[in-house]
Amino acid sequence: MPDAVVIAVDGPAASGKGTISKLLAQHFKLQHLDTGLLYRAVGLAMLQSGGDLDDPSACEAVAKKLDLTALDPDVLAQHHVGEAASKVAVHPPLRAALLEAQRSFANVEPGAVLDGRDIGTVVCPGAQAKLFITASLEARAKRRHAQAVQKDPSASLEAISADLAKRDARDAGRSNAPLAQANDALLLDTTNLGIDAAFEAARAFVASKLHA
After folding, report:
1. What is the mean pLDDT of the chain?
2. For residues 38 and 98, is the Cβ–Cβ distance under 8 A?
3. Cα–Cα dist 69/88, whole Å
4. 163 to each of 43, 57, 84, 91, 180, how far by Cα in Å?
5. What is the helix, strand, coil percentage profile of the chain, to 5?
6. What pTM value is reported for the model?
7. Considering its fold, how many domains does the chain have in total?
8. 3-state class of 182 per DSSP?
9. What CATH number did the domain enclosing 77 receive?
10. Can you list the alpha helix ranges (DSSP code H) found in the chain?
11. Is 31 helix (H, G, I), strand (E, B) or coil?
12. Could you tell me the residue range of the domain that residue 137 belongs to?
């Protein structure tokens, strides 16, 4: 393997990319970074301070002070935080502020698995292996709903589906670093795949790339 192995995993929310990325990191003994947490952390900070999610400068200022080692996945996983993250992620100054932090993380040996929306296309275009994980909106909404009802029994599947659709449109439609599949990425549709089968497909692809 190369000295610093970089595996890029992109895809929409609730596609399974986070779970697959963590399993890949464990298997290949690499670090893992859920880059969505960075945007969620900025979104949460803006919400807590009463800041304007549509203010690029304010979001950039928060991003520049972000501590990558102090991200709390449990707090940041809340649905409203994800909505805020999708809104602040459209700002080019914010994305630029987080870009170098992500690249620096990826380039520390032995390497890393990064998952997000633009890893294979913008953050780490030279990654040795790239995957684009997706699933139908219906499947993703059901997965997110199953998680949500554990904390809030009244969570609405219809509302979650609508929110995911809005996030998809926002992420794919932004002018700066939109959600997109890299030309050399494996497209892995997990709509009808269990986690074991999805991971095995991803693992086999990555192994073939690293040992080519």
Report:
1. 93
2. yes
3. 21
4. 16, 26, 11, 20, 19
5. 55, 10, 35
6. 0.89
7. 1
8. coil
9. 3.40.50.300
10. 17-28, 36-49, 56-64, 73-76, 79-88, 92-106, 137-151, 157-173, 195-210
11. strand
12. 5-210
